[in-house]
Amino acid sequence: MTPGPSPRRVSAATEDALGRLDTVGLVEAIQAREVGVREVVDAAIARVQAVDGDLRAMAFTAYDRARVEASDPRGGFFAGVPTVVKDNCDVAGMPTREGTDAWVGRPARADGDFARMYLATGLIPLGKSQLSEFGFSAAAEHPRLGVVRSPWSLDHVAGASSAGSAALVASGALPIAHANDGGGSIRIPAAVNGLVGLKPTRGRLAQDKTMREMPVRIVSDGVVTRSVRDTAAFFREAEHVYRSLSLPPVGDVTRPGRKRLRVAVNTTGAGVGATPEVAGLTMATAALLEELGHSVTEVEAPVPPGFSDDFLLYWAALAMVLVRTGRRRHGRSWDPTRLDNLTLGLAREASRNLHRLPGAVRRLKRSTALSAAFHASYDVVLTPTLGAVTPRVGHLDPTQPYEVVIERLMEWVSFTPLQNATGDPAVSLPLATSSEGLPVGMMFSAGAGHEAVLLGLALELEEARPFAVLGAEKAV
Fold first, then answer.
1. Are 421 and 364 contacting, i.e. CB atoms less than 8 angstroms apart?
2. Which pLDDT belongs to residue 474?
3. What is the domain-level CATH number for residue 316?
């Protein structure tokens, strides 16, 4: 069989500190004065500028502000490390446009609760990263703002609403970036871009008011990184700033876990199973777990009946609220004719089915108890992060009819939403590669509060099967 053409890749990786080191390594280099903060920030800005014409990952740039902060960085473990904040969280002095051009964005007066905690760790924001409109789609393909593309292949999407953040980290432009996850948008872009993406337990991190007030708090904030130790270090340091007293601490996870785990594996998801290729890669990961001494059992999907329909209706209700309150929230610049077909179609879906919403909310809340009962028998569940390999640009284009886009979304994103409803933690790890040479994420979920278990397992798997890093082959 003749191999197809090589994917068009984009990498900012070089042989200097920012190119060679992960986030923790960069911190160590800064602390040892091997590199200066201004040097690192300037290098990151140059890299973002070099790749963003292809990736379209930045929603707003604040380079001059970042240079000023680099001259006198605030304290914290990550002092001087460059990053971005996803453009659905407020950062003082930057507009929050939520992936749309349906209104004129104005600078936020103050940091939101998450950004305040995030930046208190010492991270320096270069600006805001691009997302799909309101984060509803698993691909950021805006007709006017552009398509956020994967640096692993410019013909493919960067995945989910945290696409911009993931594209910048995977390309080597930044070592760490903010992401959040209401249906998989930490884990999905991590899977697509060969990164580590941990969605934490509900309430683990500080969260903006709008997210806290949802009837079902499906959104969690976190980061995407290139190494497990970077993600572990972020949660350790975030815990120094904000600690949820209702959850056991994550602590300082620096070594693989020693306990052999009871692992349940499933490839059927919430009604739509994985493709044969992805299912095969998942079972190969299960075999690796067995080689490492873990007990692996194939099980039926631990998903409540009707879950997909309930989650879609709740998702649609969020769109309906945003559409109906747009003028009140954004003033005269609000222009609903600029909203995409997915947002408007979801709003119509909710309007037609409002009578079903209370029952859907009750069942989604009940999923937390059902998950706790399941995890009494299993420590960890292994599934693919996504049901199929990464789609090409255009497959989820939101200018297509709503019915086309939503059917394709539901087929691709069938594994990640469960933990948004239950509130459980889950991590995507870049443990597999598709026949096209693109990353395929494997997802591990655990019971509420057990991020440390997932991180310990992730460190073990990273050691056993080191992750591929874009740029190692000098792609440009």
1. yes
2. 44
3. 3.90.1300.10
Which two three-digit tokens encode residue 61? 């740039």
Helix H or strand E encompassing 444: strand 439-446
SS (H, E, C) 163-180: HHHHHHHHCCCCCEEEEE
In a domain, 271, yes or no: yes
Q: Strands 262-265 and 295-298: what pairing?
A: parallel
Whole-number CA gyration radius for the chain: 21
Gap between the Cα atoms of 209 and 96, Å rounded: 14
Range of the structural domain that residue 443 is part of: 17-464
First-to-last C-alpha distance (Å) of the chain: 27
The per-residue DSSP string of 297-312 comes to EE------TTHHHHHH
Nearby residues of 10 by Cβ (< 8 Å), 6 or more positions away:
51, 54, 55, 151, 154, 171, 475, 476
- pLDDT tens profile 302-315: 899 899 999 999 99
Domain assignment present for 377: yes
Instruction: Give the residue among 256, 201, 190, 182 at the shortest CA–CA distance from 223.
Output: 190
Given a contact cutoff of 8 angstroms between Cβ atoms, the answer to whether 92 and 129 are in contact is no
Q: How far is residue 457's CA from residue 260's CA, in Å, rounded to a whole number?
A: 9
**With b meaning 16 or more CB within 10 Å and e meaning fewer, what string describes 443-464?**
bbbbbbbbbbbbbbbbbbbbee
Q: 3-class DSSP state for residue 236? A: helix
Residue 261 lies in a domain: yes
Pairwise CA distance, residues 90 & 334, whole Å: 19
3-class SS at 150? Answer: strand
**Residue positions counted in the chain:** 476
> Which helix H or strand E contains 277, and what residues bound it?
helix 276-291
Q: Is 473 contained in some domain?
A: no
Strands 82-86 and 124-129: parallel
Number of separate domains in the chain: 1
Residue ranges in the chain whose pLDDT is less than 50: 1-2, 473-476
Residues classed as catalytic: 86, 161, 185
At residue 58, what is the residue type?
M
